[in-house]
Design goal:
The chain is flat. Helices cover 74% and strands 0% of the residues. The longest helix has 30 residues. It has two domains: 227 residues, no CATH class; 152 residues. It has 17 helices and no strands. Helix 2 runs antiparallel to helix 14 and helix 14 runs parallel beside helix 17. By secondary structure, the protein is mainly α. This is ABC transporter permease. Keywords: Membrane, Transmembrane, Transmembrane helix. It holds the Pfam family EcsB.
Length: 399
Amino acid sequence: MKQLWQQRVQQHHKEMLKYSRYVFNEFFMIAIFIFIGALAYSYSNVLDTLTGQLWWAKPLILVILLVLLSFGHWATLLQDADTLFLLPKEPQLMSYLLAARRYSLWLPAAAFALGLGALLPFQAVATNLVPIDGLAIFVVMVALKDSQFWLQLLASYQRFQRWQVPFYLIAASVLALSLWLTPLAGVLAMVIIEIGLRWAIPRWLATAIFQWRAAVKNENSRMLQLYRLINLFTDVPQLSGKVHRRAYLDPLLRLFKGSQQRTFGYLYLREFFRGTEYLGLYLRLLVLGAVIIWFIPLWWVAAIAGAIFLYLVGFQLLPFYQVFNENLLAHLYPVPQVSRIRSFQHLVQGLLLVQALIFALVMLVNHSLVQWLLFTLVELAAVFLLTLVYFPRRLQPEK
């Protein structure tokens, strides 16, 4: 079973590596670095305004730590066929599950390290905690996450099905003990809890039966969330698109009816509104870009980030041009190919103009009128450069 786990991990890493070059592309990384820099700048300005110990600092840290604790899921990498082919191996399954528990700890531990590292300046300014206390709190967080994975393992054997509320109550108590008394008290409490779990779990699981379907369902749900995140940047074969009627958008479709030259404009807009892949991708990147721009204090940095997100959205929409390539009837329409390219160009241009307008509305909230006008001009220039110069060249081979 350990060999099977190693094979699954290698396959998983290979798949994630394939998608990583699409997710962490250069333009997205530039946008992320700009966002992190702007956030750090704002964070530094906020810290400069804080003086002395604040009564609300530790409660805020406690809430942030509980939010961090919810990050990361138990990755079993089980597959649908395992419910049949691994059933005879159930007595040896525990070694597989324990390896999955250890593997699942790495990503949350990294997130805890980053989160606690970001909290250190605030902790030093607004509380009586010292930097070495952050290390003890990190140990407490990792131990709590390990305990959470143990409880998830028990739930897979029909033990402690409703563990979430008691777990977070105990986690809040241990973290409060670490913040208000001493972090060493939290470490001691977690040592006792971990020893108790490791003593009790073999006895609880002695006669338990592994729930294969529930475990596979949970793993499929975890991977579905991951694929949806990846789908923000590239197509994922594991996600099948669905069609929705969305009758409330019909008035927009009527703008393209009754004109032969607008045939493909109508078809593209209809497919975009009624599908889920590209519409969902557009909306998610739109919201993500608006949130990042909201937190950027410098208008010119926000303008660069907005232009990058305009490029990302437009670039992700380019494959949509080929959506009718396998539809034979679309090739029989008495419409020239240049009309199809122009219709797609107008669709992308309209979507990017809406995106630029929303970005401009976000900027209007916390920037001056002059800065807003400059930002809007930059975004409009980016839209027209992309749709009139760059994207037509990318579609040239399709002519």
